[in-house]
Amino acid sequence: MNLPRFYCREALSPGAHVDLPEPVARHAVRVLRLPPGAPMVLFDGRGGEYLAHIQRIERDRVVAELASWTEVERESPLQVTLVQALQAGDKMDFTIQKAVELGVSAIVPVDSRRSVLKLAGERAARRVAHWQGVAASACEQCGRNQVPIVAPLERLDQWLARPADGALRLMLAPDAETTLAGLAPAKHVQLLIGAEGGLDPQEVIAARQAGFQAVRLGPRVLRTETAGLAALAALQALWGDFREG
Question: How many separate helices (H) and strands (E) can be counted in the chain?
Fold first, then answer.
């Protein structure tokens, strides 16, 4: 039986008693209707996971007792940073959730010229915090014990000025001559995906100057919410943990 899994930011240790975070406690008791004594798995993002059980349920709190710690990770050997231009509506939530399930290492939201959604200041900070929560929830579902970081929002041109840090930099283009299968395997990839209208021509030039190489997945034009996920799956199949079955 698969036990419910919950992320707790507080550092955990065997034998400790912890108050479950309010959203976790509410979901455990009101949605899953877990009773006292119910087993669960807790993880704090620092590696491994803990077997735990609900010790007691009070009006405004749920206390869990931690038992054994298991040194288990479900991370891909391929490190992919998804540099995703802002998407409108709930597309960013969907993209981040599925990218985490597909093993992405980090997510960098960027404001591009064709991004319909525009965020700044406190509104941007709140949205990034929300996306970080989406990433954590996706880890609870898919079994990951390390939560990918969602970086603060910045303009694409500013991010392109950053060093590649040895990563293979890729962006998608249906008319590109090179395919993913034609590339030499890499251990660290930075994948740039445009917004609904794709990257602006000037952004494409800037990306090339920053070391990004255009590759194609096939002859079709993919939507922004499809492109990054399809590329992530293909990269995992070529160089990541999809090869391991």
Answer: 6, 12
C-alpha distances out from residue 32 to 29, 61, 100, 140, Å: 6, 15, 23, 14
Closest CA to 57 of 77, 29, 79: 29
Domain residues for 235? Answer: 79-244
Q: Are 48 and 112 found together in one domain?
A: no
CATH number (domain holding residue 41): 2.40.240.20
Q: Considering only CA atoms, which of 212, 116, 211, 202 is closest in space to residue 173? A: 212
The DSSP symbol for 215 reads: E
Q: Which of 81, 152, 88 is nearest to 120 (CA)?
A: 152
pLDDT tens by residue, 225-236:
999 999 999 999
- Both tokens of 215, joined, read 């590759």
Do residues 91 and 53 share a domain? no
Task: Tally the residues of the chain.
Answer: 245
What the block records as the tokens of 115 is 């991004």
β-bridge pairing 5-7 and 39-43: parallel
Both 21 and 133 in a single domain? no
Instruction: Check pLDDT > 80 for residue 60.
Output: no
- The more confident residue out of 159 and 58 is 159
Q: What is the reported pLDDT for 120?
A: 81
Span 142-167, pLDDT tens digits: 999 999 999 999 999 999 999 888 99
> Containing H/E element for 124?
helix 121-142
This model's pTM is above 0.90: yes
String of DSSP letters for 70-108? E------SSEEEEEEE--STTHHHHHHHHHHHTT-SEEE
